[in-house]
Specification:
This protein is α+β, with helices and mostly antiparallel strands. Helix content is 35%, strand content 29%. It contains nine helices and 17 strands. Strands 1, 2, 3, 5, 6, 9 and 10 form a seven-stranded antiparallel β-sheet that branches.
């Protein structure tokens, strides 16, 4: 978790990033912003920092491994070494972002570059450089009082509780590409890709959160998309496998791959197929190798559990929620009525 209650935003520069593909200009500022006002400082802390959960981290990368060729990493290193060049390099960062804003569907917006001290991460205090892009303006009403009368006007502004895109670069592990945390509220794959992959050029840090997240996703992908390629399994059985998977993560502190496979999948053939799918999944998603033993991240389990549906949908008439023993539900076919059915066994109803 990132603790920012005692943090201090010492410098902020703002620039406007137009869409280069739509021939919109880059507008850079000549001077940093004045953020000495206490109330403004508090609003900026909320706007810049509240959206970061601090569980999933990345590091800067470059195709040949030379981090000095990654523009944002290079600029961040210079700023950490000499804060007097902050505003000048914030302009260079804005120019780099404008160059990457080269698809018609990427939104233009305001870029804030900030230097922040006093951020606490894993019980250590760090300086950080923040990059924050605001793309969506919100209309608001303002009531003005003048000469004993009132006038109502409307303006567009930035909502401080809705950060569209953000990045925190912690002054930690510089030789390995720093520790980087990202926020991206875009729902479009390309827009997310341009911020993370083209502008920042970062790769995931393979920590416990990473391993837990992708192991759960990999297990879900196997059950939902691959298991019935080689095995006859019903949807109810698939839900049972998903329930067993997430229950393992909820009930254990450490994942042991062989133990996990035996508990979730009852026979050796399915266990073998699962092991093969792990290798294929890593390659298909270009992931660092998933460990076969790691400490389970509770934060990741809570987040991933939401995506594991335990609902069996029957036409538009019924939904059956399966949370436990799959043996208590039986599937069949009624020849007289020409319809499939499920028989459910239970002891009490409420």
């Amino acid at each position: 978790m990132i603790e920012h209650s005692l943090s201090n935003i010492t410098q902020v520069s703002a620039h406007f990033i137009g869409n280069k593909a739509n021939e919109q200009e880059l507008k850079t500022s000549e001077q940093p912003l004045d953020v000495s006002n206490e109330h403004l400082h508090s609003l900026l802390q909320k706007f810049f920092l509240d959206s970061f959960e601090g569980n999933e981290f990345f590091h800067f990368d470059f195709s040949n491994g030379d981090l000095s060729l990654n523009p944002v990493c290079h600029f961040a290193k210079q700023i950490f070494e000499d804060q007097t060049v902050f505003h000048q390099l914030s302009t260079d960062i804005a120019k780099h972002l404008h160059e990457q804003t080269n698809h018609p569907k990427i939104k233009s917006g305001d870029l804030y570059v900030a230097y922040i001290t006093g951020l606490v991460l894993d019980d250590e205090v760090f300086d950080a450089i923040g990059l924050f892009k605001s793309e969506n303006k919100q209309p608001f009403l303002k009531l003005l009082s003048q000469n004993g009368d009132f006038q109502l006007v409307s303006e567009d502004g930035t909502a401080v509780d809705k950060l569209d895109k953000g990045c925190l670069i912690f002054n930690s592990n510089a030789e390995a590409g720093y520790r980087v945390c990202i926020v991206d509220k875009s729902n479009r794959a390309f827009e997310a890709q341009y911020w993370r992959d083209f502008f920042l050029n970062v790769k995931p840090l393979a920590n416990d959160y990473f391993h837990t997240t992708h192991y759960i996703k990999m297990a879900k992908d196997f059950v939902v998309n691959k298991l019935d390629d080689d095995f006859a399994v019903s949807k109810a059985e698939k839900i049972d496998y998903l329930n067993k998977s997430i229950n393992y993560f909820k009930e254990n502190d450490t994942l042991m791959e062989e133990e996990f496979a035996k508990i979730v999948f009852e026979d050796e053939e399915k266990q073998s197929a699962f092991a093969q799918h792990k290798s294929a999944y890593q390659e298909a998603h270009t992931l660092p190798e998933l460990e076969d033993s790691f400490n389970i991240s509770t934060a990741s389990v809570k987040k991933q559990e939401r995506s594991l549906r335990s609902v069996l949908k029957l036409d538009k008439n019924f939904h059956i929620y399966i949370h436990g023993n799959q043996e208590l539900i039986e599937r069949g076919f009624d020849e007289a009525k020409g319809k499939k059915f499920y028989k459910v066994y239970f002891e009490e109803e409420s």
